[in-house]
Structure formats: structure tokens, C-alpha cells
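Q: Got a minute? One more chain.
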Amino acid sequence: MSDPLWTLDAFVEAAGGSTRGDAGADITGISIDSRTLEPGEAFVAIRGDRLDGHDYVAAALEAGASVALVAEDRLAELPEDGRYVVVADPMEALRGLAVAARARTGARIVAVTGSVGKTGTKEALRLALAPSGKVHASVASFNNHWGVPLTLARMPADTEYGVFEVGMNHAGEITPLVRMVRPHAAVITTVQPVHLEFFDSVEKIAQAKAEIFEGLEPGGVAILNRDNRQYDLLKFLAATAGVSTIRTFGEDQAADSHVQKLASYPAGSSVDASILGNEITFKIGAPGRHLVKNSLAVLTAVVELGADLARAGLALDTMRAPKGRGEVTRLPLPDGDVVLIDESYNANPASMRAALAVLGEAPVTRPGRQIAVLGDMRELGSDADRLHAELLLPIAEAGIDTVYCAGPHMHALWQDLPHDLRAHYCEDAKDLQEVLLNDVRAGDVVMIKGSLGTRMGPLVEALKKEYPPADDIAAE
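A: Always. Here it is, folded:
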């Protein structure tokens, strides 16, 4: 039988609380969602923007929670026969658990931030480090003020490698998170014009991302994208933060880790690279040049953390693009197939360019077409229309055949599109559904992308419902 994640005594001490009721069992996991809680897990009743976990304590206890971590001022409202650890503030208690979890482990830790590619890079690190030891990594995109401490609190004491994603929308958000994580290596994938609604310039975004250096362990390493325009600023900010070791990755041959030879194919890439002077050939099981570049950062971190580079390279061949983030699916039509690239989870100018490049690299069987279905990018502030219109260049560079647009900001692109590229425009994504379903034909490659709030995901689901998918093309 494996050790519990937390003994009750250690959990109570780290949370800074006291017990009520029959709280005698050790703790196998930590949950903030009563719907997915497994018996034996502790339920943490945090207050979110929309929901208050205290409203779900009864359901969590009924589902078999070992204890519920609750606020003292809400105790009177909760079931009298419950099992509780009582604290002043459950969110602050969760941070206490995070700090204690980090303190008790001897794991080598890597933290990832960046305007684009955080989650994919985190997942690649999880795969690449797994052959070398026990890995703990955040699930989904748990990269904010509750996701990071929750991930830390869930980290077993015998973890050998920890992988954490750290995100932000505003300045000052990364610093407290990375000081909990205390990584030995910090990766910044890239800095791009994202969240401009909250920042005056891209340089200000770079400064906010550079907060990740504030939590680096003594002797820790910063891993930076040498091709990024903000590289010189990030390098300066790393040095200013006292980081003595800076490693670089990119297409620039002067980068410490760089590509020597690249071959792309529908389901991924084959790469010859130099990683900190080590020659390696590896495959990536998901398509896109941006994934190739980020794999250089991944393998650089593998070396810096003392893990096995060759086995890490082999592991990247098992990488698959997740739903909404580049997942590739083949949809059968009576006379052939449509290839669907699902990028509907989110969008910003950098990820749009990357997705358009992937679409441009995808082979088509004529008369099939490379089709871009694009929804608004959010949080771009006063530059929104200009940044949407500027997508015309990557569309042209990728050789896209036809473009559908949805959203008021995408109208700026629509106006500039050559007439022979225009398929259809509407203000609301749902109004594209019928025309898209009627227009696709065998041989087409369709890429759907937009910010989550633009609701491009239902278009993906509508295509899959109309043409139930065959096996994932990446599995072939």
C-alpha cells in the first residue's frame, strides 16, 4: 500500500488549522471539486469568482472526502456531523500546504511561463522527464493563484521531477506563485502581444514574465528564446534578478540549443538538434514548427535538471496535441476525408501565426483546400483591430486557400482579405455553422481557432457530429 499524500497531522499543521468531528483518516489527494472528488481526498472549500466551495461541502463529505478544509466563519452553516479542518481562510491554508509540500521534497523543479505554448511545453516536459524518475505536473492549465498552490499541495513527497505552469494577466501575479514553486529551472517560451488590454507595451509584458526569475533557487538556470524580440530585455532582467546561468534555445545557430535539420509531416516532425552541445535526433508526435522550437527548451531543461536526454528525446514521439490546442482528427465524407485541426481553446496573435503556419504545412489533395476558420482574439485592448488585420501576412505566407471570419474584430481582417480568399464573415461564430457544414468537401484541411469567449469550439463539435471522426490522424 502506498503512503498517503498527507498524514492528517501534517495536513493540519501545514494548513494552520484545527480538527472538528471524526477527522481521523490520512489524506490520499486534494480536491476543490465535489463532482470529481475521490474517496479519501481532502476537499478544500475555496471561494472563487462565481462559486463558493462551502456550498458543496455536504456533497464532498457524501462522496467520501476524508476531511473538508473550511473557513471558521462558515462552520455553523455546515453539516454538524462533518469531518473538518478549520482555518481562517481556506485559500491561505492551501498556500500553506503548497509551501510545506515544496519544502518536504527533494525534487528537481522546472517552471514554465510565456505568452504562448505554456501548457504544451509543460506537457512535453512531463513526457520527457518521466523516463528518468517520478514526475508530478499540473493538470490542464492550473497556472493561476489557486491552480499553482493546488498543484504544489498535490505533489507527493517522493516526487523526483516537478513541472509547473505559471500564468498571468497582470503584473505582479507571477512573483508570489514562483516563490512558492522555487524552481531550479525557469523557461520563458516567448513574449508576444497578449493581454495588451492590461499592459502598455510588449516590454511591460516581458517584465511581468520575468518575475519568474524572482523565485529561482540559488544556482538556478533561466532558459530563454533567443529568437524572441524581447530576448535582450529578458536576459538583462534575469541578470538583474541575480540569475548567473542563462541558456538559450531557438532557430538562431548561436543559441545554446538549436535545430540543425527539420522534416515536417502531417502528424509531427523529425528533428536533428544540438542541445547544449549534445547532438540528438528525435521525433515529435504533434505537428507545428512552434512545438519544435519549444522542444528545444524542454530538452535543455531536461539536461539542466540532470535527467536522461536520449530517453527524453524518445519520449517526445508520444506527444499528442490536446483537444482545442492543435488536436488533429480525420472526418470521413462519402468521397474522401476532411482533416480537422482543433485550435479552438484560445487565441492571440502569436498562437494564430503558429496555427496558420501548421495549416500551411498540412498536405492537401486537390481540389481540397487549406481552410482557416478564425474567431476574435480577446484582451488586445486598443490595438485589437490592427492586430487582427495583421493576420493577413501569415495567411499569405502560409498559402491559405480560403478564410472564414467570426467576430467584430475579425472584420478588420475580413476587409483586407483578397476577394478570392473570402469564404464567409459573421459577427457571431454560431452563424458560421450551417455555411461551414455545407461548404467543406473531401480533401479539405480545416483549422478552427479563436479565443475561448468567441466560442469556436461548437463549430468543431458540429463538424464532428455531422461527420463522425475516424481515428485520430496522429495515431497513424
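A: The chain is about 30% helix and 25% strand.
Q: Perfect, thanks.
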